[in-house]
Amino acid sequence: MFGGIALLLAALVYLPLTLLAPLRAAAVTLEVPQEPVVASTPLAFPGYGGSAIGALDRPGLLGQAGSTDPLPMASITKVVTALVVLEAHPLAPGEAGPSTTMTAADVGYYGEYLAQNGTVSSVRAGMTFTQRELLELTLVKSANNYTKSLMMWAFGSQEAYLEATRAWLAAHGLDRIVVNEPTGIDRGNVGPTDQLVELGLLALAQPTIAEIVATPAVGIPNLGVLPNTNALLGVEGVDGIKTGTLDDFGANLLFSADYPVGSSTVTLVGVVLGGPSHSRIDDDILTLLRSTIANFSEVEVVADGQRFGVYDTLWGDSAAAVASEAVTLLVWGEESIATEVVTEDVTTGEAGEDVGDVIVRVGERSVTVDLELALDLDDPGPWWRLTHPALLF
Fold this sequence. Notes:
By secondary structure, the protein is α+β, with helices and mostly antiparallel strands. It has eleven helices and 19 strands.
């Protein structure tokens, strides 16, 4: 009798303990893929002056060669002038803006810069130009006299312009760019190539400037059709930005170009300073651009449904942890690609349930993809619980 009671009591204790006991989490085995290897080739920089190249949405430079000292910018200075003017007097793309009438002072600027062998465009007192037209004469024609007219219209004096310009340069971290006057005819207007690339990126981020510098020619009333001084426009994706020339220094070009890479578009921005001629630097810039874009590729870093781990339960069920979507990333050269797999504890679950993350880091960028169960992980049921107490407890 006592044996039967003891057996009953044991059953009354054993049954709820086993049937209600919490299950242990499934063991997970990670499967981190081998990092893909992307080939790279050297960048073909010119062998003179200073040069650098970068890309939109990528920090720092892709490469740099030659002098890293501040070098004469020449008419690249006009990009600074245009940015500072537009900060003081905003102008949306396509808008004309207010008009200003040329005076005897503006006519005097023509003679002033002509005497210095600078680029000029004809002017007469009484001619009227919009803000947009003055910007086009500055950035497309590169007319020094109209650049000064734009500066005087915007700020009233060179002193006020210089105060605004120095504040703007400081605010944008361009501390090694020096501007003494608005046109670049002063050899003391200098900048290092790395910061001039940053200047180019800022110019492209200003919609009105980006629109103007990509224009092959502009029609200005009383002056006719004026071609852009940048002869590379439209060649192999080049869409900007500004030429510069000083007789005692050489030819400069701050340039930008767009290239398709797979489903992505890469915008390159670079500068070459101190070239022997514009035809020479144009050829060398195309060579540099080709060698740079050849180092970009799209890489599928995660495939849809790719397995990154397996969950194995004590009762023999198994389910893979797979990526919920594919991810393709733009990779530069031999940029490092690192994959981290983070999983959650899983006991039971349904197919498609979120069980962790795959984190892929390419350079300084990262992307996160959800991991999900490929199959159901079911409860083992009462019979397994009753017959495997050692595994439960």
